[in-house]
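ERR on first pass: missing label on line 2. Operator R.T. fixed the label and resubmitted. Corrected input:
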Amino acid sequence: MATSLTWRDHLGTIGARSGLCRNNYKLIPGLYCTGTPDPDSPVLATANYKLSFDALRKELTGIDAWILVLDTRGINVWCAAGKGTFSTAELAYQIQQARLAERVSHREILLPQLGAVGVCALELKKTTGFKGIFGPVQASDLPRFLNSGKIADEAMRTITFSLAERAVLVPVEICLLWKPILIALLSIFLFSGFGPEIFSLAAAWQRGVTAAATTLLAVLAGAVATPLLLPWLFGRQFWLKGLQTGLIAGLITLILFSKQAGLLAGFGLFLWSISISSYLAMNFTGSTPFTSLSGVAREMRRGLPFQAGTAVLALVCWVAGAFF
Amino acid sequence: MKDFRYIDGAAILKLDREACIGCGQCVTVCPHRIFSLTEKKAEILDPNGCMECGACSRNCPVRAIYVNPDDGCGCAALLIARWFNTLIGKETASCC
Ligand code: SF4
Ligand code: SF4
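pass 2 clean. output:
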């Protein structure tokens, strides 16, 4: 699992964005080494996201090499390359800062393949004299790459999205979502209070707990079950995949709560489940390494109106359910 | 990617074979193995497999490749922010 953390994953975004999960994920940029490198040893570039760096070092155990750490603000290579912080300019700057040309006799620098999103090898050569060589996608393939004359086979060049790789993303998704989830839960308690007595705190609490449990179940369906079950859910659009897990969560909710909440309110909870799950699944497109932005835009034009519609209808049913 | 496919016909990826000099850089960097070299020119093998990461176009020495620019990580939250900001006439920063 540590290896799949290496070149890509969203954990870095936690360090950068979410106060809740903030940790010391940054590393001071500059030149580091593993083993005892000499002027002939290879130079590898990476991001200053601590987990990437640690995993890279682990993979390079027993190999003497230089590691040039770029300032990507603690974000992993893939996200940083997309954002433009893992860039040709930053690489050139760190090469110069580290006086790399004086430390090594060769003029080659190994880049993670996914860094190609941000770094242009030709431009690097022009500005620094260093030839950028794209290594494998996974850091775990690096020893094999280095030992085979720096040639990567097709498998090393292909991105994967295994169950383990999806599983590491789940806590990250949840971590990034805690704020909207909290807001949703608060408004749910508020809406649950409306009823024949205009507003009742007792009802807000009692019905609120039911609705909150439904919401958390829907989050499980959309942000946990959908990523894990991704290849086995029908269809290609994520909002439809989330709809399927949401349907199951909604049915469980109906069985658990419709007796106590009433059929109308129960139907509201069911709609709420599929809306939340479908949205969260759609949001997961941002973490997958195979969804194009054009495709996401296309499915969102269908998914968003559906999710918004079911959410509004769910609220109406839920509040109306308090009167009947 | 063989085991995961996304919506067909969505990704915007264009190759100008006239301009291509056959350096092979796009073949190397693409994590979905979309390109191959035929008769010393790049060829798009699998247009629907493209995730619009832009690695190929960034590394093409003659700008023969066009990819729909994705200045974030391609997530729904970014698009919603962008659509919303277009409505109220604001610029959107990238997401993560
Ligand atoms: S944009 Fe990325 S996935 Fe698409 S062809 Fe280029 S390198 Fe491959
Ligand atoms: S990178 Fe550009 S010039 Fe080189 S093979 Fe690909 S399309 Fe042709």
